[in-house]
Each structure stands twice: as structure tokens, then as C-alpha cells.
Amino acid sequence: MVRFLLTRASLVVPTFLGIVFLAFILIRLVPGDHVEVRVGERGISPERHAQLLHDMGLDRPLYVQFADYVGGVLQGDLGTSIITHRPVLDEFLALFPATLELSFFAMLLALGIGLPAGIIAAVKRGSIFDHTIMGASLTGYSMPIFWWGLLLILTFSVGLGWTPVSGRIGNDFFFEGTSGFMIYDAFMSDEEGALTSAFSHLILPTIVLGTIPLAVIARMTRSAMLEVLGEDYIRTARAKGLSTWRVVGVHALRNALIPVVTVIGLQVGVLMAGAVLAETTFSWPGIGKWLVESINRRDYPALQGGVLLIASLVMAINLGVDLLYGFLNPRIRHKR
Amino acid sequence: MTTAPATTPTAPKVVSPRREIWLSMRANKGAMAGLIVIVLLILIAVFADIVAPYSPIEQFRENFLQPPAWVEGGSWAFPLGTDDVGRDMLSRIIHGARLSLIIGCIVVTISLALGIFFGLMSGFFKGVVDIAIMRFMDIILSIPSLLLSIVIVAIMGKPDIAKAMIAIAITYVPHYARLARAAVLTELSKDYVTASRVAGASTRRLMLDTVLPNCMAPLIVQATLSFSTAILDAAALGFLGLGAQAPTPEWGTMLADSLKFLQRAPWVVTFPGLAILITVLAFNLMGDGLRDALDPKLKR
Lengths: 336, 300
Prior knowledge:
The complex is a heterodimer. Chain A is 76% helix and 0% strand. Chain A is mostly helical. The longest helix of chain A is centred in the last third of the chain and has 39 residues, at 244-282. Chain A is globular, with a radius of gyration of 24 Å. In chain B, helix 10 packs parallel to helix 11 (251-258) and helix 10 (216-239) packs antiparallel against helix 12 (267-294). The longest helix of chain B has 37 residues, at 89-125. Chain B is globular, with a radius of gyration of 24 Å. At the A-B interface, helix 1, helix 6, helix 7, helix 9 and helix 11 of A face helix 5, helix 6, helix 10 and helix 12 of B.
């Protein structure tokens, strides 16, 4: 097991260095000079230009700059935002809880509906249930989620007035959040109705962000379940006279969930990409919206740091899933 | 003279592989529905200038934000209504279909070509080349594709539709490269390749004429499926202001432009999105059907 852990973990190192390199190169591919990008359209004298280049260390050889950048990254220095002049890492960490909160509930929704739907579709294969669930999940999978968000706003916010249009909580609440997780902060505050308000702001974004993972999980659960249900040991279990739900819920599900775990891990990347669209649609103050704003403001250090952090996060979670997979499935663990 | 006994077993009817795929597709209702929609879309795209009642950028200033024909205040002159500067929604959506299909074609072609190139290189030359290419693909894959294409567009300067297509295509390359490599490795171990090699075929001939045609099945399926994601991603970039720019009748861009009128004129938001959904769904249905037809092992 230890050997398996170490091999898998060591494979991540070159990929991580590659990501850092990509992030490093990225900012240098921006057309125009780095200094000119920073000073904007004000113009600058050649001496001052050279001085700034020197100050930023951009007149050194590229490999020295790269080594310097890697050193900085490993110490948590991801550069400074051009616009706010705050460290990129601080900005990211301040906004990340909002994205994490949204992603958490989206994943909860996707699992809470996707898993049972997939299981029912597999058990009742070929029935109207199966067709409906699979049709709905293919539609969800094909959904332009930014439009889906607008449609939900039109129906539930504008039409029925049930949910707010944007933001994380009503304007009439003034408590100081400590954790950055609105649900938790609202719960801890003594203001009446804060929690309800926070939840009502969360509903539509959660549905929008959860749609694609839900569709993927339902489809994957169904096909994994169908495969397992065809195995001999399931027939044995049935022949022993166990009830259908015992066979499905206890014997089949445990094995069917193994491939599903991988798919769930892969959804983290989907969630991060989806967050960009969902947060833009609902003005949700998270990482996705921040990245789009950084692009529009030409804040390249913020973009660079943000991409590096998200890619590292996705990589770390995939590694975690890989290890979990090995833990669940001894065949993987012992393979040489 | 006695006639041959009637019990002579007749040989099973030979069905060509291509016909087999078609028969399997035809049995799949979803795939057929997808195919019909796609054919319709292609016809609409090709004959957009004839089908569309107006030019997509012609402005009827006195008729701005007119609702669809069946809603009160609408007229059949503009069946799906007009947008904020009085352009006919139907004409814009029809021309958007042309644009979306072109986007799909170009993105899939670029990524397929690059993917096959890297996959063949990786599979044939193994060793350092293989490791270098595959590690690089892993790195690209570790960044969520929409995010990566956003970043690529951002560093290329002022966004436009061509940059968006290149950016999206780059993010799809690893999928094709991996599939091509896996298929190449499987094929390389087969006898016909060895035979061809013994007969003196050059590496180039082995790659392109001997091995590649036998690797196409998974690539074709992936191409159909990524056709739909390409359309979806291009629309997403357009929605974020990083794809096609304002007067272009691109569905995602149209959505972004109409956000201000969400409450006043829901139709300017509804129809472009519906167009995206229907198109993407059609390609996914057909891709699924094609996968089942080409690879019966996966069928369930």
C-alpha cells in the first residue's frame, strides 16, 4: 500500500512542474511588453522602462526567472494583482470559500439525485423510468448552463418571485462573516432570516452548477450498475433468495460505485469550469467571476495565479481519487 | 434427375461492416432523431441566405424588441420577434446555425489532426517522445477545458471567433492524442502490421496507410461528441465576451447581448439558448448511437 501511495504521488511531481511552467510561460505570451501591459496607455520613458524591467527581474535569463518563479510558488508567492496591488494568493483565498460553498452544494445535489436515478434506471432497465431518466440526463449533459441559469431566473425570480436574482445574501443583513462560507456565517449570526436568505440565494446557482455533474453521474451509475448486475455473483445472490433491493443495495452497489468514484473526481474540473459560467450568470462573488473580471481588466498576474491554483487543486483531487480508487480496488493497488 | 434437397443450409447473408453500422444506428431511435435534426441543421446552414427572411444584421429600428408572432403585440413579419435594435431573431438564429456548424467543423478538424499527429508519434516512436508528448497532454488535461480556452483567448489579445476556435481546439487535442495512441499501440501488436513491416513498408507508410485507418473508429466517435462540446464551448466563450463579437449572430454572443432585456423581452434570451440546446443534444444523441454501433462491446 505504501509503495502504491508513493508511486502514484511521485507521478504528480512532473505534472505539477509542467503546470507551473505553463503558468510561467503564459504571462510571457501576452502580446506586447510586460512593462507596457502594466503601465497601460500612459506611456513611459525608455530609462524608466529599463528600470522597471530590471526591478521586476525581467532582464535576467529566462531559466533564472523560472527558477525564481518556482521558488516563489513553493513559498506561496503567486505575484501581485496589477489592479488591487494585493497578493494574488490572498485574493484567491478570500473568494475561494464562495466557490467552494457553491460547488459543495452542487455536488451534493448531483450525488443526491444522480446516484439514485442511475440505480433505478439500471434496475428498471428498458422501462419508462429508464428512458425518462436517460433522456433527461442527456438533455442535462447538453445544456448550455449559462442559458439554463437565465431561464431559471426568468421563471423563478422574475416570474414567480420565489428566489433572488443574484448575490449570496439579501442587502438587509449586515453581519461580519468570519469563515467566508455564507451558510455558516448566516447561521452563526443572530440576525433573523439570514440563514433563509442565504439558502434562497444558493438554490438557483446550485441547480445550474449541479446539472452537468448530475447528468454525468446518473449515466455513469447506470452503466456501472448494469455491468455489475450481469455478474455471476449477483445471480448467486438472487438464487439464494435475497430481495431485489438487498441484492442491488448491498451486493451490486458496492462494486458499481468504484468507477463512479473516479467520475465524481473528474467532475471537480467540470465544477471549476462551470463555476466561471454560473458565477457570471448569478453575480456570485467567487473564483470564476474573479477570473473573468481579471481577464477583462488585463490583470495577468491574477489570471496566472488563479489558473495555477485551480489546476493544482484539480490535480490534487485527482490524485486523491486515484489513491481512494486503489484503496477500494485491491487489483489496482497490487498491479505492477 | 433429382433436384438438390431443399435442406441445403444457405450461407448466412453477409452484411458489410458499413451496413451493419447503419442497421445498428437505425434501430436506435435517439440516434435517428439526432441525425434528422443534424441533416435539417445542415440544410438550414447551407441555405441560410434563402431560408432566413432577412439579413441577420439588418435593423428595423421602428420594430425593436417586438415579441414573437404568437404573443400579443407580435406579427408574422418577425416570427420569433426582434432584438433591441430591431434585428429579426429568426434570421439571426438561422445564420447562427451556419456559424455554429462551421465552428464545430473547424474545431474538430484542428484538434483531430493535431491529436492524430501526436498520437501516432507517441505510439510509433515510444520512449522519450512518447513520455514527453503524453506528459504534456496530461498537463493540458489538468486544467479544466473551458478555463484553459478562456486563458488562451485572453493571452492572444482582443477576442474574436477565430481565436476562440483555436483555443477550444487546443484543449481537445489531448483526448484525441490519447485515443489515437491507445489504438495505435493495439494495432501495432497485430500480425498484419508485422507483415507489412517485413514486406518493407516505410514508417510513414505504416503510420498513415496501414495503421491509421484501423484506428479511426474511436476517433470518429470522439469527433462527433466533441462537435457538440465545441459548439457549447464556443457559445460559452461568446457569452463571456471572449468569443464572437457583437454584430456576429453567434448564439452565445446573442445571449450575452440580450442580458439587459431579460425581464422586458424574455424571447431574445429564450431562442438562442434553445437553439444551442437542440443542436448540442442532436450531436450527442448521434454520437452515442455511433459509439454503440461502432463498438458493440460498450453497448448496454
